[in-house]
Amino acid sequence: MAVYTDVSDEDISRFVAEYDIGDVVSFKGIAEGVENTNFLLQTTKAPYILTLYEKRVNPDDLPFYLGLMDHLSAKGLNCPTPIHGKDGVALRRLCGRPAAITSFLQGMSPRRIQPHHCAGVGAALAELHSAGQDFEMHLPNALSIKGWRSLFDSCAEHADDVEPGLGKMIGEELAFLEENWPHALPKGVIHADLFPDNVFFFPNKEAVSGLIDFYFACNDLFCYDVAICMNAWCFEPDNSFNVTKAKNLLSHYSKVRPLSDVEKAALPILARGASLRFLLTRLYDWVNTPKDALVTPKNPREYINKLRFHQRVENATAYGLD
Amino acid sequence: MAVYTDVSDEDISRFVAEYDIGDVVSFKGIAEGVENTNFLLQTTKAPYILTLYEKRVNPDDLPFYLGLMDHLSAKGLNCPTPIHGKDGVALRRLCGRPAAITSFLQGMSPRRIQPHHCAGVGAALAELHSAGQDFEMHLPNALSIKGWRSLFDSCAEHADDVEPGLGKMIGEELAFLEENWPHALPKGVIHADLFPDNVFFFPNKEAVSGLIDFYFACNDLFCYDVAICMNAWCFEPDNSFNVTKAKNLLSHYSKVRPLSDVEKAALPILARGASLRFLLTRLYDWVNTPKDALVTPKNPREYINKLRFHQRVENATAYGLD
Questions:
Q1: Domain containing B65: what range?
Q2: For the Aminoglycoside phosphotransferase domain, which residue ranges apply (chains A, B) (predicted)?
């Protein structure tokens, strides 16, 4: 959680006047998102979210993200809908930063993941993949397999500080994945960061009430997104793999967008790649975050364990697939 | 800003079920208050604030604070109204901490203080003092003049690290105040922390839309509360004193609760006391806050300058009083 940029009452009043959304009645910094500053903005019309894009988001990519949310909302997906100003423009500036107002989504992120959450998120991910298929903009995945080697090179010397032998393990895994990556699988718009923080539910309901935080979305393999999700939702806090959760996730995904046999066969290697991607970014942040930072970096260890699990998997039946 | 305690979706759903306020539809940690953890809780009925009381609040004092908010709300003052559970109890427990749900107040804290804000806060403070007069509970001010010496003793050795000679200056001021404090002035319930963060306005409106954060409220001299407010609202960011703002604050206060001649005459010494109180607590926090704390302590210097200003004041005409 972090509010990096303070916005004055005068600034927000002036900013809101550029929209046709009524007048501000309340405005509070919220502990949501670690990359950007988010405010809950209540106007005389409705609640909204105001996001100020901080330095980790490339401003050149914002039209893709906002365009995607516009596209997905129009398709009926529950995601933040960018609100356009009176001049039709959604991406604006506030306090020297790119900024946008989006609709407010009801629901809460689950803290303790239940099997029914995995069913819901599987279906929602497939709906996202389907709804994004006719989106016309294109953004390559900056954190795809092509980007991992340079990321590793920039922090390899510190890898063994996290765990002895980690540098060697990552090097070998990277070589294996570069050799065997299934580049030819079905592609499209993926979320690429569909962790529980970014998925809202109503209490005791299976269906997802909304997806947020599309600021890692890009074009890549659909099934790689499934693998990211499986890593994020199907391991227990003690690092054990919960096959019931995986089965729920994959079967509810497949009901909306069936996985081909080639995709199923590729799941173990995609899951290894998804583990390595988060291991590498966490390692990078671990090494590079100053001790007095607003945000505590996440421990890379969790993803070492996930990678080891998938390295031992022989085929997708380990994930509950037939 | 800080969210010290994480509350799971399951915990909040269970907790809300103890009230008759509908079901949870959204729940977000907010950057409001530095002592406690606050959440904006949206139910099917209305928005509310959930507060978890962290270690700096004495649990024994919570019945006073919540009782006071109940009392003031019943008198028509715009302040958070404690919501009582189905069993009638407002002060409950959540995640191992005392916790309470209160009503949600509209409006925003002003960042750049305008003279009209000072008029509004003056009137609101007097309304608070009047409305509190028949409140039956009593809580002595733990940070009154009687508490300053022990506070100073606990951090005196580090005073000169902030500014050479500061220890001597504080010692002399403390002796002067102990000798001359006007203990016999009118007393009652005071807010004791009415800084701009704790006062909400609607854009471009003079009238206060709500007062929050009653967790320093206590029984003490009304006019001491006026002096705290004057310090918090009438100095410019460059430490200059804005007499127009003070005149607005004092004249709008007096329209609701007239200041006696004795109170007016005592304002300079009360303002010195109010400066010393915040100088001492900021010095204490400055010395005692670990470098990796979630909250950055406020610099004590600001209150050294305020104290110096009031030491040079001969009488209350310097504050714009006739």
A1: 9-103
A2: 27-259
Q: Are residues A77 and A137 in the same domain?
A: no
What tens digit of pLDDT does each residue of A238-259 get? 999 999 999 999 999 999 999 9
Among B49, B108, B202, which would you mutate to test the A interface (most chain A Cβ atoms within 10 Å of its Cβ)?
B108
DSSP reduced 3-state for B84 = coil
Residue for token pair 């609701």 = B256
| A25 lies within 8 A of chain B by CB | yes
Q: Would A149 be classed as within a structural domain?
A: yes
Segment B200-214 shows an average pLDDT of 94
Tell me whether B291 touches chain A (CB under 8 Å).
yes
Helix (H) or strand (E) holding A181: none
The answer to whether residue A70 sits within a structural domain is yes
Residue A109 lies in a domain: no
Nearest to B203 among A13, A28, A292 (CB): A13
A12 touches chain B (CB under 8 A): yes
Number of neighbouring beta carbons within 10 Å of residue B64: 20
| Cβ–Cβ gap B28/A26 under 8 Å | no
What's the whole-number average pLDDT of chain B?
94
For residue B109, tell me if it sits in a domain: no
pLDDT tens readout for residues A84-119: 999 999 999 999 999 999 999 999 999 999 999 999
Q: Distance (Å, rounded) from C-alpha A147 to C-alpha A125?
A: 24
Cβ atoms of B65 and B217 closer than 8 Å: yes
Residues in chain A within 8 Å Cβ distance of B30: 28-31, 40
| pLDDT in the model for residue A170 | 97
B102: left (phi over 0), alpha (psi -120 to 50) or beta: beta
Quote the number of domains for chain A. Answer: 2
